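Hi C.,

You asked whether I'd gotten around to modeling the 48-residue construct. I have! Everything is below, sequence then structure, no commentary in between.
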Amino acid sequence: MELLLQKIEALRMKMIEEAERHGCFTHEKVVAISQQLDEYIIRYYVLK
């Protein structure tokens, strides 16, 4: 469970960094990371 939370936090930080790099949250790389992050968050709440 802790590993999953660490992965979620790492992806969240990566998403923010990419958004800052590209200047928006709608860039395709940012959206892809966001979708992956959504999957991990859903897994977390299912397991919780």
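If it helps when you're writing up: The chain has a mean pLDDT of 97.

Thanks,
B.
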